[in-house]
């Protein structure tokens, strides 16, 4: 609605601005409004078509059965009824929650720990930082392939190392409970460098004098961490928790796709993978959209709550 | 400006030595899988599952096989075209939008910004199906347009650029405005040149993200001629699952550009991530 309002204003000002000399202030305000309209046009239009419309459609589609190409049958809440009684859906919800509860604290603690380590002035610290960060730049497809190679039954490097300690026949990707743990480990491995950098940026914003003063007062390293670092790192910590939650809940599709294919026996079928599977492997676009709409609503509520809490991304 | 490089001065103490050892061990453990991949790509089939890190007799055979069996150059070309197009168009449109949101006054500015901001955390995988339906309706399935256009629109870039523009001093445009310069002129001659650092950081970041993109190309294309490199290696792996020497060579080929970009543009990547941390 704002767009239309802007368009109308832009239209009138372009008509009257040139013919009738208005006061300089008014003309300038109109020029500014008209310019803003054109500057915002490409992105607003794109976001409208490729993000906003899909968001609404995600919820609308959930009430339809979509057959083949372009045939939509309104079926009311049937998809949601089906979802409620679908054990695979609930299993995916459970797996996603386990994944979330494992990965978010791990990347938080490991990311922070690594940041505290690599902010030290040590020889080779530049190389150490780069090495800890590098998995993040590699694609998830490559990550999945490398780990598959390392975890391959019998011939993989991990299997042979475990064999040395007498653990024969352990199959990290073949055993349902181990497969989810493996996905968690791999996720932490490629994400930790990203959060290390975010925490590092936060740490560097803390004035060094605070630490100097604490040292003079005889505070131990632990006390300095708990009394200075953690409280002053609150905005960064909050940001990490929020973004990591969203990233973990909605990401990892590529990883699951290539590493485990959701298996064994659905043990790594995250919600996002379950949705993809229903939509593009079984052709159940409507049902998949219904499942997806649950995720959309959750994410939207999450982002709006975050917007309110952070006052539009500007921390106090 | 901080980079991955460290400062030189060090005073030795047992704690420092312990921390350094810890750092080196963690770093080696972290890069081990990637080193194992790259060296494995140079091993013959008989050796690829062995325990030696370095190949006893390095061979390029695997790479030659990959490039002759599969049109890998075509895949890489597709990835390059898509990534470059998305990066250029996204930065152009995002800097325009960010300029308006940060520097121009117009009614509803805060509302529009809030709406744009709220789309930021709804990532593509969540709305994959409806986006697919929209793109199908627009007739862009199996086309470069389908690969490129939907990937452009992402509030993340707008948000970062807006934060950057907000922090520029207010007097910046005053003189130009008094001289009667158009807003387009101000954007091109004043704002864009000042944005060079953040634009170069975002260029590297966007290019990498799009080079690594897999789910969207998988969803939107079926024509093998439009296959991007990530899709290419995933398909290759399905066909050659047991031939790890070939699979690793393919993975190395797909990862090499990203690793090279990382080594040359570490600072830009790190800067773009740091500015994402809501500083």
TrEMBL record, chain A:
UniProt-listed PANTHER family: ABC TRANSPORTER PERMEASE PROTEIN, INNER MEMBRANE ABC TRANSPORTER PERMEASE PROTEIN YCJO
Membrane topology label: Multi-pass membrane protein
Keyword vocabulary terms for this entry: Cell membrane, Membrane, Sugar transport, Transmembrane, Transmembrane helix, Transport
Intracellular or extracellular location(s): Cell membrane
Occurrences of domain ABC transmembrane type-1 (ranges): 93-306
Organism: Brachybacterium fresconis
Name of the protein described by the UniProt record: Multiple sugar transport system permease protein
Entry's transmembrane regions: 37-64, 97-118, 130-150, 178-201, 232-249, 255-276, 288-309
Pfam families: BPD_transp_1 (PF00528)
Source organism superkingdom: Bacteria
Principal subcellular localisation of the protein: membrane
Classification lineage: Bacteria, Bacillati, Actinomycetota, Actinomycetes, Micrococcales
Protein family per UniProt: Belongs to the binding-protein-dependent transport system permease family.
Automatic annotation (TrEMBL), chain B:
Keyword Phosphoprotein belongs to the record: no
Pfam family, one: BPD_transp_1
Domain ABC transmembrane type-1: 76-265
Transmembrane segments: 17-38, 80-101, 113-138, 144-165, 186-208, 246-265
Keywords (A to Z) from UniProt: Cell membrane, Membrane, Sugar transport, Transmembrane, Transmembrane helix, Transport
Keyword Zinc-finger annotated: no
InterPro entries, per the entry: MetI-like, MetI-like_sf
Localisation: Cell membrane
Membrane topology reported for the UniProt record: Multi-pass membrane protein
Family according to the record: Belongs to the binding-protein-dependent transport system permease family.
Protein's name according to its UniProt entry: Multiple sugar transport system permease protein
